[in-house]
Amino acid sequence: MIVCENLVKIFKAADLEVVALQGLDLKVENGELMGIIGNSGSGKSTLLNMLGGLDRPSAGKLFVAGSDLFRLTNAELVKYRLETVGFVWQNNARNLIPYLTAQQNVELPMLLRGKRKRERAKELLDLVGLSHRKNNRLSELSGGEQQRVAIAIALANEPKLLLADEPTGSVDTRTAAMILDLFQELNRSIGLTVVIVTHDLELARKVDRVVAIRDGKTSSEIVRRKGAADEQDGPLEGESEEGAHDECAVLDQAGRLQIPEEYLQAIGAERKLRIELEEDRIILFPPRR
Ligand SMILES: Nc1ncnc2c1ncn2[C@@H]1O[C@H](COP(=O)(O)OP(=O)(O)OP(=O)(O)O)[C@@H](O)[C@H]1O
Q1: pTM here?
Q2: The CATH number fitting domain 29-53+73-258, selected from 2.40.30.170, 1.20.1260.10, 3.40.50.1820, 3.40.50.300
Q3: Is the ipTM here above 0.85?
Q4: Ligand 1 proximity of 44 Cβ (cutoff 6 Å)
Q5: What SS3 class is residue 102?
Q6: Where is this region: Disordered (predicted)?
Q7: Going by C-beta distance under 8 Å and a sequence separation of 6 or more, which residues neighbour residue 143?
Q8: What is the pLDDT of residues 67-85, one digit of tens each?
Q9: Which end of the chain is more exposed for a tag (fewer CB within 10 A), N or C?
């Protein structure tokens, strides 16, 4: 579904250049539900904007659902944004209209595209578990319900890829869990590929894979271990929650490896490591003093 190779994004403002993505590599399979985490300024939103066709990358390769994002003309990019991707933002509900009902809010963007699809709007509200609230005005819905209306709208054009930027950023923990459950449900029921940018570590339990971005590059991945994939109510018996996931460091195209700072600190290593190959493992030691 998504292939990023050596992706670079440089922002130029006056005589200042910011390299927001520094040769990022990422592959996402069709039907994957994955999370992207990283510190503030690490490049998460920049990556999401590239994937959504909202901005153009500076160099590298970027393919989404068969489209080469470097080659699309401006008109093709507009079509791509309308047909291939759906967006969910943190404060999505702010773009909804408080005095219209949930159903009217879902119908409105379809109307603007010249289609009146009352049935489709009902279907979409059903999909996000809100059919019982369809005739309520938006102002009568809770923050979580409003976010679900926004998700219904994001699904209106049957996107192949749903991009969510901090979708649980402005709701409480319980509502956040419900929204993540909804993404999981949509992923399973309609095979939607979902990429969620978040600070919320609880997400690691709900998604197949979490990719960490550091300084504009993918640095490590937390992958749900096989066998843990179907359990919904927590870790397998006798297994700690962390035990259901493996943390992997990522090798870039040139075979370079990023090692988390805290790991280096723990063994007292700074710029050099001793490396040894032992049967089926590679071992890193601090240099001999
Ligand atoms: N339009 C822009 N012009 C100049 N610099 C930008 C622009 N957008 C982002 N940047 C810079 O690019 C870097 C990555 O920003 P980005 O917003 O992608 O980070 P982020 O990981 O999403 O952060 P946050 O979690 O705070 O949203 C930052 O240094 C940011 O200041």
Answers
A1: 0.83
A2: 3.40.50.300
A3: yes
A4: yes
A5: helix
A6: 223-245
A7: 93, 170, 171, 172, 175
A8: 999 999 999 999 999 889 9
A9: C
